[in-house]
Amino acid sequence: MEISQSTTLVRDLRSRTQKRADAAADTRPRVTLSFYRYVHISNPEAFRARLLAKWRGLECLGRIYVAFEGINAQMNVPKEHWEAFDAWVQDQPELTGIPYKSAVQEGDAPAFFKLMIKVKDKIVADGLDDSSFDVTNTGDYLTAAQMNEYINDPDAVVVDMRNNYESEVGHFENAITPDVVTFRDELKKTPELLKIHKNKKIALYCTGGIRCEKASAWLKHNGYQDVRHLKGGIIDYAHQVKAQGLANKFKGKNFVFDERLGERVGEEVISTCHLCKTNPSDTHYHCKNQICHTLFLGCDSCVEKKAGYCAWHCAKVDTLPAGTKKVLARYYNLYIKKRQPFQKRRLQG
Fold first, then answer.
1. Class for domain 130-251, per CATH?
2. Where in the chain is the domain with CATH 3.40.250.10?
3. Bigger pLDDT: 109 or 102?
4. Catalytic residue among 206, 212, 287, 302
């Protein structure tokens, strides 16, 4: 362990493998949750240090982004520390009253294996110039019951504001699912895509609601007047449907940006294995070859047959000497990775 030069926090110098092993060995019950807030943070670095010091002490794990514009967090907390965690969060002036969204389904493996808090330019990479429009002029919220009404209304349009690998495994009935690989691309494409629906009621949805906050303001800036968005996203929708006995209009799985890679919302499997292109599958895997690390859908048969690799050449590369793999990794990162940005990198929340 060593002391960071910029703060008095102790750095965690465990290897990635050791962090995974330690997380897997910790079998205590945990609460997996997400939350976000657009709020002015005058000193993101100091705010990060404050979060890190407290949450490390409570043995929290997760991925948290902090910026001048707010916070975006996906994390979990040992149940034994939940009350202390909640009390501390609600006592912070930037976070008082912030709503949590708890996981719909816990996985067999830990959702996170380390605590990572990063300072970013934005809490969601959207590519927009926030000074060019009113980011606070967002659409009104929709409850789960209201969302169902929109889905059943022929004069309404429901739009998925997530990426194509997310909507591939699960989406609302009759939703428009743009073929994009980043939120930045979707914000560029959606105003033009919806032009023929400009006079209709529009409902946006995403995983936990954060992308729709900015997207609804952006569409209103582009002349779309009747824009609303699902409060709490798919995660909160699933909880409301269960608690209120509503019809579940979400088909398939909700993709999540942690080690689980998905949680079951609808019982249907609406996607197909990427390897055999035949068998139904909505289970995501990362290729075992760490140079590749491609995200793919695999059925049990193909994953077993290919031993967790996405292709035969990935399995072959993994048998090469470490020095050779290092050279290949450098070439791959320079010349191939950029061509497939969403698949060839660790997914960011």
1. alpha beta
2. 130-251
3. 102
4. 206
